[in-house]
Design a protein that fits this description.
The chain has seven helices and no strands. Helix 2 packs antiparallel against helix 3.
């Protein structure tokens, strides 16, 4: 497998399709009494990742290492590199999976390798700098912890 394919495959693990597939699988394997809370928590966490990224990029534009030309607001948000949304989604997903697996060591090692692989791939692809992926990972973990706390309270809201 060529190096570029490995880098692209690792990068994809922080992408939206992978996140939605894992969310769907979690909804399927979660007991029916908690299924709604888990699905809602994942989707709200995803929305929070997008929202935080867009808000930061709106106020603080940092061009990507390989600059992208932009003509409107949405393209400007996409052309900014800070923070890394891929790294944020990967860290969010990793944190949620570790907590839901009740801190399984195997899960911790697996998702840590995947998250670091996503971060590394984004830097190697020259889409982000190391600080972009580091901040993305930290924000993803923070959003995940907040989402997990809220998920524990969702049944009380219904």
């Amino acid at each position: 497998m060529p190096r570029d394919d490995i880098i692209n495959d690792l990068s994809a693990l922080g992408g939206l399709p992978f996140f939605l597939i894992i969310t769907g699988l979690l909804a399927i394997i979660t007991p029916s009494s908690d299924r709604f809370a888990v699905a809602l928590m994942m989707l709200l966490g995803l929305a929070a990742c997008f929202g935080v990224t867009a808000l930061i990029r709106w106020f603080y534009f940092k061009p990507r290492p390989s600059a992208i030309h932009h003509q409107n607001w949405w393209q400007r948000i996409d052309a900014s590199s800070f923070p890394s949304l891929h790294a944020m989604r990967a860290a969010f997903l990793a944190t949620v999976l570790v907590i839901l697996s009740q801190y399984s060591v195997t899960m911790m090692i697996t998702v840590t390798i995947i998250t670091l692989g996503v971060a590394w791939a984004r830097v190697v692809k020259k889409v982000h700098r190391p600080i972009d992926v580091i901040v993305g990972i930290v924000l993803g973990k923070i959003i995940a912890f907040i989402a997990m706390v809220l998920m524990a309270r969702i049944p009380n809201w219904l």
